[in-house]
Amino acid sequence: MMPEDQESLLFPYRILELAGEKSCFCGKILGDMGADVIKIEPPGGDAARTIGPFYQDKLDPEKSLYWFAYNVNKRSITLNLELEEGRERFKDLVKTADAIIEAYPPGYMAKLGLGYEDLCRVKPDIIVTSISPFGQDGPYRHYNGSDMVCWAMGGMMYLCGDSDRPPVQVSFPQAYLHAAADGAAVTVMAVYHRNLTGEGQQVDVSAQACVTWTLMQAPETWSINRLNTKRAGIYRDRPAIQAQDKQIWECKDGYVHFILLGGAAGASFMPQVTRWIKEEGLATAWLSKVDWAEGFDSYLLKPEDYEQIEGPLSEFFRRFTKKELYQRAIKEKVQLCPVMDAREILENEQLKSRDFWKDLEHPELGSTIVYPGPSLKLSETPLSLRRRAPLIGEHNEEIYLGELGLSVERLEALKQIGVI
Fold this sequence. Notes:
The chain has 18 helices and 13 strands.
């Protein structure tokens, strides 16, 4: 490990990470916290390396931007667990580790003789975090589950999209990111418990359950009121009166987020908005006389009255850029914010002021790539990006020779028979 790792949150803990895209974000989080994360790939490289897009659009397992993003702060070795010799080398690594992250189908590790009970015989206090579509038990335990499957069967897909269209998946896969983040959090808790009691344990992460956990009040709304929360798209659902009000508004160069409110909250900024609309000559008679503090309740507003507001507001927003609307909103204390795209996030002054974006050198590319840094800031044990994502088996010699004590001849022999 690097010298600066000693100042991090999880130094000197070691994590072994297995099984591709379903688990890689879990290992990244722990790596950002300072753990020594060893990515164990099959000879030839992990399948996650084939996920695009690719650096300069060149299809290459060493140039996957997906791989770059989710495998920083890791070291890579290659190892074939299907071979007996490979399993023995893995057990040697287990003796040096605090936790293992694996995302194979339930039962696969046990068939190899590397199940939780088997690994406990190698290291009694080992922690094994298993990430799978539906968990290690139950009638669905052997079902395959892509990200979209878990998003749908977790219940979130039903809530995504427009009310007059079928459900949709969020543009970028989400289910296993939730599962991996939950897996990272509970792995740290299990390590803490181990430190207190000496007991290791298996952590069983179900991607379906992790998605369902994000539904917030939707299950309760059904349980109490027998109402399914509906897809609302750019609107906010108001199920009590079977109506919706708009939240995302088109402007001259994109979109802004803005919600109509009444009462004390609305009275603090809606008069300013009404004044803007009047300045543009767009105010209706109804809009000009509304009492935002006492006479406006969006949850009781009739659809025909809402139309008196939505039309003028829509036209008003389309006359200005996101920046113009946001700057005036800040000046007059109006609750409005821009919907930022990737370029705008990269240029955002708040993120820059927090030193969020980090440049990582990629010597093999002869280039530097900008990465999102850790989202959390700790004053005493800061999270950091210390190394770019590893090349296939980049650290074989460092770990097999330098840490496990294999000879150069033995390492070469293992390569020849397909173990490494």
